Fold this sequence. Notes:
The complex is a heterodimer. Chain A is α+β, with helices and mostly antiparallel strands. In chain A, 49% of the residues lie in helices and 17% in strands. In chain A, helix 3 (45-55) runs antiparallel to helix 4, helix 9 (166-179) runs antiparallel to helix 10 and helix 11 (200-212) packs antiparallel against helix 12 (216-229). Chain A is globular, with a radius of gyration of 25 Å. The mean pLDDT of chain A is 87. The mean pLDDT of chain B is 90. Chain B has helices spanning 7-28, 70-78, 87-96, 133-140.
Amino acid sequence: MHYSKGLKAFFFWFLLLTFGTVFLLGCAGKSAFQKGQEEYYKADFEKSIEYFEKTKTKKDKNYVLYMLDLGTAYFTIGDYYEAQNAYLAGVQTMEKDVSELETAVQLAKSDRKKTYTGDPHDMVMAHIYLGLLSMELGDIEAAEIEFKKALESDRGKEEKYEGDVCLAHYFLGQIYKEKGELDNAKVAFRNVTEYNPDFPYAWYELADIVREEHLFEESEKLFQNYLEKDKYRSLGQSLEHDDNLGDLTVVLCLGKGPMKKADPFLGAFSRVTPTKYKEKRAEISLSEGILGTTYQIDDVTFQAKTSGGFGGQLARKTAQVVTQEALKQVPGVGLFSGLLLGGSGADVRYWYTLPGEFQIFRGFIAPGNYNLELKFYDEKDKELKGYRQVWYYISVRKGQPSILILRSMLGLQKT
Amino acid sequence: MQRTNRMPIFLIFLLLVITSVIFYCSTTGTFINTKSIHAPPIQYCNDATGHIPGSKPWILGGTCCCTPSAELMEQYHKDGIALDLTYEDLVRMYREAGITTDLDHKGCNNMCDHGPHVVKGGKCMCTPTPGTKNFEEVVSGVFETVDK
Lengths: 415, 148
């Protein structure tokens, strides 16, 4: 079949124009915030921060989200100083009291146009990060305050879900133990064993404290629980302490955090939806051999799903619809109220860079500088090659706990 | 019979195959991290690696980037280093050179205004964060040149 020259030229310019437009729209349509989020999951944290930094001066409705994502990007790259500043800015904005007039305006606006003031679990996670980085900066007092605030902010949708963030309990237990407040430490570790009985290290700590109280039989029972849960037994086969060993904890921020979608039945409400990710655990080894594996301490999606908020969401939504309907009756305003305030669609904004879960490995090992290898496994316990990580010069010292915080991500260590 | 030219169809097919392979690789993780488990030797010590006995303070042209402290000064003296200096002298020397240490602020991973790390040509000697690329580069002294 032959086409005339004119027709061929037409097709050529038509295709060029179509693809060109699509390409340009794709590039130009993304905000600095979205680009920052994209770069974060490409593990290019410097670029991600560059984009997020541009949003810092924009004091718009999404300011809280900008600060939370910026904080996480700084946290991941190890700049705890800037991470702290960003998280604090986010927390302070979430805590800020709005004036009555502002409340009325906010009430009438659609959720998407409203100033994002954070979901309950956003506040919990921001305090968790602040607690972790305070520990890394050696400020135990600040860490204690932050972990306590995380638990106070954890308003569950039912009573049983209130204050069930195990990471906060676990590290509070460690802090109390260091301060010699063994009764408080015992309560904290007991909470972890109740909320997450599969997490082995809390059983160990509990057994250790009970042994200090000379309750040897109970201590032995608790220690058996530890042995059953930790197949690698990285804290040892008995509770006898070897003072020559160092204490290494690896906190692993694993996978992608939950997202929010409009509820398919109640379209005006949002619903927390899990994000799929492949990695389910990490095996940790030195050149000398396998040390152990990471164990889940908190499922962030579960925390988001069970955090309070639906009651508040329902009340806000009802008030919003009533206010919007009332405004429609006002002559001259009614026609434009929808345009000005937006509809009553669901608010699907969320903290994009949150991990899906927090996992912990802990082991007693001889002091020294180690090269640590992390191999990641999927739900079928098959190794994921692209996720492997190697970190050099990890220091373990006698009588001084070392905490290493890492992030799992595909292709994190591009060479 | 006229022979049809199949080259354009073949090229389009090839393009589709290449695009699909690139897309598959980028989404399914065929990337393999080949980083060795054996690290280069420690060239520069800091608070996170622990002090390497016998190493001289950075400000005196050495390889020790540990935060000055009375304890560290004692160690230097034991090793016969900086015998004529006190802890206060050492802190003053770093401050006069415009170098920030953990005594000024902590946890920046050398990304602050004084960064990068002195090893990389900057003015920040704060302890880098373990488990990061910057930490490994500072300790090993192996890094790409940073423009500052």
